[in-house]
Amino acid sequence: IEYLLKKITEAMGAGWQQEQFDHYKIALNTSREGLSAWELIDLIGSGQFSKGMDRQTVSMAINEVFNELILDVLKQGYMLKKGHKRKNWMERWFVLKPSIISYYVSEDLKDKKGDIMLDGNCCVEALPDKDGKKCLFLIKCLDKTFEISASDKKKKQEWIQAIQSTVSLLRAGSPPPHKEARQKRKELRQKLLAEQEEMERQMKELQAANENKQKELEAVRKQLEAAAARAAEEEKKRLQTQVELQDRFSLELEREKMVRQKMEEQVAQKSSELEQYLQRVRELEEMYKQLQEALEDEKQARQDEETVRKLQARLLEEETAKRAELEKWHLQQQQTIQMTEAEKQELENERMMKEQALQVAMQQLKQLELERKEALEQYEEVKKKLETAANNTKSWKDKVAHHEGLIRLIEPGCKNPHLITNWGPAAFTESELEERQRSWKGKKATSE
């Protein structure tokens, strides 16, 4: 009952109220094992567990639970399916069961269009949007492949998860979840029934043992009654004897009472004397304590006086030492002031000397600046003269070299040793000089 009500409540989209069901379970007759189908329908229709839900919602929830638990329908709904021959998209009503997906023209399940057989080799893959269709996914089987389009991403994800869970159960060889839960509930009911039978058997054994105990208790009660009668007779005899003894003891008690009264008077007198003696002792002890306290106070006062005297002597010594130290500091301060005045005068003299040296250095700097300018002017004149002399020397060298015929193109020289001329290392070798001499001699002979 709890499982069915919970499934129907979840199908309606409402929350399960465990506390309300516990109250209902307590109110239900515990002698009954369950409810009939009509009683369960009346319970659902009463609205006790479906408050605020209309009849259509309750009917749809009952139909959904019936499809899941009785018809093994794991999921159902409208989706678009792509055809295998004409490749067109048609809307179909899909019904997912533990090993098959059937699709119909509409949800009345009258016109069935085909089945998709599921096994452990099947798989589901999400596809990207294409051809204007969205929320696509693919179901791959051994012989065929099916392209399906859901209405939205949520429905697409729910269908993919439901099909994957079904295929995983087929691979593992496990039954559907609701069948497994049904089997567990059945095993639990059998276990509870066995425990109940065992409890009933134990109760019968306890009842039989209780009856035996009752019989034993009855026999014991009769024995106790006989023993009580005997005890009453003995008690009667005992009372008679007790009366006789009581009379005898009364006389003795009177005599003892008189003796005790006399002894109490004597004890009272002795107690009064003892109390007076104890009061005197307490007074003496109190006086002794007061004397002890007075002695302690006098001793403490003497110690305090000695401590104060020592403290005053120590303070006097410290004051003398501080006064000597202050006088010493005063002398040191006077000496420091005198030394500071002398150093101040010395620094003032040194500052005057440095200012005079600075003025002399400034004059020397100006003199050096003038000398530097004159030296620069002389350097410029010498530089111009050197440039003029260099130009003259160069023109003179050119004339001499042209006259002698020594002007030639500058070419890389050989590695042989060069000749030395009046103007420095020659630009030609000894063999080149001999060749030029032969050439001059030939020109000279031709001219003659």
Instruction: List the secondary-structure elements in sequence, H or E.
Output: HHHHEEEEEEEHHEEH
Form type: flat
Helix tally? 7
How much of the sequence lies in strands comes to 5-15%
Order of strands side by side in the largest beta sheet? 4-3-2-1-7-6-5
Mean pLDDT: 80
Largest sheet: 7 strands, antiparallel
Task: Tally the beta strands.
Answer: 9
N-to-C CA distance: 154 Å
Q: Tell me the CATH architecture of the domain at 75-174.
A: Roll
Radius of gyration: 69 Å
Give helix % range.
55-70%
Backbone structural class? alpha+beta
- What's the CATH class label of the domain at 75-174? Mainly Beta
Tell me the name of the CATH homologous superfamily of the domain at 75-174.
Pleckstrin-homology domain (PH domain)/Phosphotyrosine-binding domain (PTB)
Subunit structure: The SWAP complex consists of NPM1, NCL, PARP1 and SWAP70.
GO molecular function: DNA binding
Coiled coil: 178-399
Keywords: Cell membrane, Cell projection, Coiled coil, Cytoplasm, DNA-binding, Membrane, Nucleus, Phosphoprotein
